[in-house]
Amino acid sequence: MQAEIFLTLLAVLASACPAAGAAWQPSEACQRRCGDVDIPYPFGIGRDCYLYTGDNDITFGLTCNLTADGIYKPFCYEQEILSVSVARGKARVRTDIQPWCYNGTSRSMDPQFAPWIDFSDSSFMLSDEENRFTVVGCNSLAYVSSMEGSQFTNGYEYMTGCMATCPGGGRVENGSCSGMGCCQAAIPRGVNTYQEKFNTSRAAAGSSSGPCSYAVLVEAAAFDFRTGYVAADGGGGFMESTGGTVPLVLDWVVGKETCLEAKRNASASACVSGNSACVDSRNGPGYLCNCSIGYRGNPCLLDGCRDINECEDRSIEYPCSVPGTCVNTPGGFSCACPDKTTGNAYTGTCEAKKSLLGVHVAMGVSVSVVVLVISMACACIIREKRSLDTVKRKYFKQHGGLLLFEEMKSKQGISFTLFTREELEEATSKFDERNVLGKGGNGTVYKGTLKDGRTVAIKKCKLTNERQKKEFGKEMLILSQINHRNIVKLYGCCLEVEVPMLVYEFIPNGTLYQLVHGSGGSLLVPLATRVKIAHEAAEALAYLHSWASPPIIHGDVKSPNILIDESYAVKVADFGASTLAPTDEAQLVTFVQGTCGYLDPEYMQTCKLTDRSDVYSFGVVLLELLTRRKALNLQATEDEDKTLSSQFLLAASANRLDEIVDAQIVSQQSIELIEQMAELAKQCLRMDSEKRPSMREVAEELGKLRKVLQHPWGQQSSGELQGLLARSPNTYSEIELSNACVSYDDSAYIGVQSPR
C-alpha cells in the first residue's frame, strides 16, 4: 500500500514546471494555501488551478481536507504533503516507520522486510544530503538496499546499513545517534529505489533491551533521538512519540535533459518567467528553474520572478553602509551619498562637501589649459596632415602617377589598383619585421592582407635614377598587363611615397632555391619534376621576350625569383626587377644590380643587357636543377672554381659529367636524358651571346624532354631516345601525336614536399 501511495505522489510531483505546459497559466482566483501549507504552481486545488499534462493523465491536483484534529491539510491520494519548494527542487512528504517487534504468539520477529519503494519511473530521487537511514533499538542490525538495474545506480544493487547496540554498562544518551541505541548511515547520491531490511541474527526478542526495533529513511534535520525510544516497556517509544511517520525529503528535476539541451528548444523551456535561469541538477541529467540574482518568485509563472527591493526588504541586511543612501535598481541596488555630501556610500565615507568656489576656479583653469592644449595639438595635426598630403602629391607626380592615372582612364578593363600608403601599412601592420618575406638588392618584400581578404606580397623598391622615377608609373601599367599562368600577377602599386611599392599576388610554397637547396638536399625531387619546373620557367621567360608588348627582359633570373605555388606550379617573380627603362622604341629592359653566379659575363664587359642575358642566367638555374649545387660557392678554396657555371663547363669538357650531376636523378633516369638537359645548359652558358639559343628555343627543347619523361619512351634504349629527341614534334606519326598530347600526370610530384 505504501509503495502505491509513493508512486501516486511521484506522478504528481515528477515534472514540476514541465515544458509541455509551460505556456498555460492558472487562474488568479485559485486557492494557493491549505491550512499552513502554501500550494505553488504547478500544484493547485480545483479545476484549472493545476497543471494537467494530458494523455498520461498525470495531475498536479491536490485536495484540501479537514482532518480529525480540526486542521485543513493538503493531500494527494491520502498522502499528506508537508511542503513543496519550486526554487530548491525539494518535496517533503510523510513516510512510515518500519517496526520489527516480537510476536508472542508465533515467538518470532515479524515482519523482516518492508515493501519496495520504487521511484525509477519518475523524476524523483532520495535526497542524499538531507536524509539518513536510521536504526533504533538494541542489538538491531538493519540495512537499506536498491533494486538491481536501478537507473541512478548504474544498473548495480547498492546496500548500506548500521547496527544499534545496548551493551551492558553502555550509556544511551538523548540526542546521540552514534551506535548506542541508535545509529545512522548516509545513502548514495541519485538513488531512486529502496527497501528496508532487518538482519535475522538479532538477539532473542523480548529481552530486557526492549521488544521492538525500528528502521526508517528520515529527514536528518527532523530526527532527534530520545532514550525512551528503546525503553524496555515500550512506554514513550519511537512509534508513540512520532505517530508512526516521519518526514522524508525528495529531490526532483524539471526534465531529464541538461540546461544546454533545454535551451536549444527555447519555446519548450520550463523556465517561462523573465529574469529566470536554468540550473543543472547535481544528481545527474536534469535541470531546475530558479529566479535570477536580485529576483524572487516562481520561475514557472509568466512574470513570476519579481525584482527584490534590497533597500526595503527586511529579510535582507541593509546593503549600504550609510543609512538612506540605497537606491533600488532592476536586479540589484546602488549606494549614493546624500545631497551636499561626497564620498563612498558603500564603505560609509560620505562627508559634507567643501566650498566649491576654489574647486570651480581650479576646474575652470584646468579646462582652459586642456582646451588650449587640444587646440594647439589639432592645429599641429592639421598642419602635419597638409604637409604630408603635399609630400604625397609630390611623390605621386614624380613617379609618373598623373600619367598613369590618365592611361588607366583611357583604357577600359585594366585590373590595376593605385594603393594608398595607409592601405599598405594596414595590410602589413605598419611594415612589421615579422611580415618580411625576403630582402634583396632591389628591395624588401612583405606579406600582407588587403581589406578584401586577398593575401599579397608587397615590395618596397629601391630607386636612385631620376629617369626611372619619372617613367615608373607608365612602366608599371605595362607590367600589369602581363597575363601568363607561370608569371606572378602584378595587382598594383603605391606612388605617394618616396620609394614606390609594388603589390603582387602571394605565392605560398616558397622558392625554387628552397626546394632544391633546402633540408640539406635530402628532399627527393624526381627528374620529371625538375624538367617540369625548368620548362614552365622557360615558357614564362619566353613569353616576356617574344609575346609581351613591348618585349620585356627579366634582368635577374635566379632560383630565388622562381616561386612554387601550392600545386607546385612555377611562378616567375621580380620580372622588371626594380624598374624598367626603354632602350629603343621596341624594347623594355631592366637596369639591374644582378646576382653573382647568375650574371651574364658579356654584360659585365659591355654593360649591354639583352634577352640573351636572361638565357645565360637561366642556364645557371638549369645547372642548379641538375646538380643541386648553389650558383656561387664562397667556401671554395683558391684552387677551386667558385661559380657553378665554371665547375660545370670544366667537368663537361673533361667528360666528368657524372661527378657533378645530383646522384638522386642519376639513379632514377637514363643518363642520355640528363646529358640532353646538360647540353642545353651548356648552350645557354656560351660566352658569345649571339650563339646562345633564344628562350623560346630553350622552352621548346625542355618541352620535348618533358614529353619523353611523361611517356614510357622515357625508359627506352639510348638509340631510341636519341632519335626521339632529335625529331621535331611536327614530324611525329599520328599515333605518336595522340600519345604526346596526353595531359601531364600529377603523379610525377610524388615525394615533393612544400619547402619550409
From TrEMBL:
Residues 307-351 form the EGF-like domain. PROSITE patterns: ASX_HYDROXYL (PS00010), EGF_1 (PS00022), EGF_2 (PS01186), EGF_3 (PS50026), EGF_CA (PS01187), PROTEIN_KINASE_ATP (PS00107), PROTEIN_KINASE_DOM (PS50011), PROTEIN_KINASE_ST (PS00108). Residues 431-714 form the Protein kinase domain. It comes from the Eukaryota. Gene3D superfamilies: Laminin, Phosphorylase Kinase, domain 1, Transferase(Phosphotransferase) domain 1. Residues 1-22 form the signal peptide. One of its GO terms (molecular function) is ATP binding. The keyword Protein biosynthesis does not apply. One of its GO terms (biological process) is cell surface receptor signaling pathway. GO terms for cellular component: plasma membrane. SMART domains: EGF (SM00181), EGF_CA (SM00179), S_TKc (SM00220). ATP binds at residue 460. InterPro entries: EGF (IPR000742), EGF-like_Ca-bd_dom (IPR001881), EGF-type_Asp/Asn_hydroxyl_site (IPR000152), EGF_Ca-bd_CS (IPR018097), Growth_fac_rcpt_cys_sf (IPR009030), Kinase-like_dom_sf (IPR011009), Prot_kinase_dom (IPR000719), Protein_kinase_ATP_BS (IPR017441). It holds the Pfam family Pkinase. Keywords: ATP-binding, Disulfide bond, EGF-like domain, Kinase, Nucleotide-binding, Repeat, Serine/threonine-protein kinase, Signal, Transferase. PANTHER family: PROTEIN KINASE DOMAIN-CONTAINING PROTEIN, WALL-ASSOCIATED RECEPTOR KINASE-LIKE 21. This is Protein kinase domain-containing protein. It comes from Brachypodium distachyon (Purple false brome).
